[in-house]
Amino acid sequence: MAIQYHVMDDMPVIRIDVQGKISLKESQEIEALLIPILDRAERPLYLLIDMSRMEVPSPDILRASNSTGFIHPNVKKMALFGSSAVVRSIINFIVRLAASDRVQFFATEQEAMDYLNQAIAEEHAQ
After folding, report:
1. Which of 12, 50, 84, 103 has its CA 20 to 30 A from that of 117?
2. CA distance 99 to 115
3. SS3 38
4. Rounded CA separation 70/53 (Å)
5. Is residue 97 very low, low, confident or very high in pLDDT (cuts 50, 70, 90)?
6. Cα Rg of the chain, angstroms
7. CA gap 41, 74 in Å, rounded
8. What is the 3-state secondary structure of 56-117?
9. Per-residue pLDDT at 76
10. Partners of 103 in beta bridges
11. pLDDT at 1
C-alpha cells in the first residue's frame, strides 16, 4: 500500500494517489500529514483522489467515517475517480456513515477535475 499526496500548483486542490490495499491506520497516517495543511489554508480546499490502483481495503477501513476529509471545515469537496465497483461500494458505505455530502465519484480524472474546476469557479463567483 502507498498513499502519496501533493498540493497542485496554482489551484486549491490536494491530489491524493492511493495504491494497493489501505488500512485504517494508513488512512490515519496520511490524515495526520494533511491536517496541518488544511488547518493553515486561507480558503477552502478540494481533494482529488485517484483510486485507480487501489485494491479492496482492509475491513477496519469501515471505521473511517470520521475521516478528516468528511469533517474538516476547510475541505469543500472531494472528487474520487478510477475506483472499481467494489471499492466504490465500500467507500460509498463509509461516506453514508459519515453523512457527508462532499464526496462525488467519477470514472475518469478529467471528469473529476471538471467537477472541481466548476466548484472552484462557483466559489469565486460568490
Report:
1. 84
2. 20
3. helix
4. 22
5. confident
6. 14
7. 7
8. CCCHHHHHHHHCHHHHCCCEEEEEEECCCHHHHHHHHHHHHHHCCCCEEEECCHHHHHHHHH
9. 93
10. 78
11. 52
